[in-house]
Design goal:
The chain has 5 helices and 5 strands. It is an alpha/beta fold. The protein has a single domain, classed as Rossmann fold. It has a 5-stranded parallel β-sheet, with helices on both faces. Helix 3 runs parallel beside helix 4. The termini are far apart.
């Protein structure tokens, strides 16, 4: 069974940490990817993190993932609001797909309110900053392995009265 999750980041996300930190936070992409790989390892998943500023490269990676991966987590950056090509590539992918945004795009400029991706993905996580990537990976574990794979809450021992 395939156990690889592709984590894709689009244009300008290589600049995380220094790019408008008041919106995108202080973590670098390397910080986020390092944590994701660790989290994936603990959950038995191989996390393949890639970033590109080029639309065609993202399309090619999505096409490849159809036969090599169990799921895709994607922050398409500004392509969210412009790219029919990335949407079509995702639509052709019969895999669980999570669209992710660090910021709440609906609270921002109007041109960011529409996503070409939302209608073709499994679900969307937005507005939680870098923590959103962790949430997305947990959601992906559930999509790939089923609800039984979710971590169990700790049970407290009953105290005698
Ligand atoms: C973003 C939101 C987009 O509107 C923007 O162009 C980005 C990042 C986010 O993660 O909040 O580059 O996808």
């Amino acid at each position: 069974m395939k156990r690889k999750i592709l984590v894709l980041n689009g244009p300008n996300l290589n600049m995380l940490g220094t790019r408008q930190p008041e919106i995108y936070g202080h973590d670098t992409l390397a910080d986020i990817e390092g944590r994701l790989r660790k989290q994936g390892k603990a959950r038995g998943l191989d996390v393949d993190c890639r970033q590109s500023n080029h639309e065609g490269e993202l399309v090619t990676w999505i096409q490849e993932a159809r036969t090599t991966c169990a799921g895709i987590i994607i922050n398409p950056g500004a392509y969210t609001h412009t790219s029919v090509a990335i949407r079509d590539a995702l639509a052709a992918c019969d895999l669980p797909i999570i669209e992710l945004h660090l910021s709440n795009i609906h609270k921002r400029e109007e041109f960011r309110h529409h996503s070409y991706m939302t209608a073709v993905v499994t679900g969307t996580i937005l507005g939680f900053g870098a923590y959103g990537y962790e949430l997305a990976l947990e959601a992906m574990v559930r999509l790939v392995d089923g609800p039984a794979a979710a971590p169990k809450p700790k049970t407290r021992s009953r105290r005698k009265k």
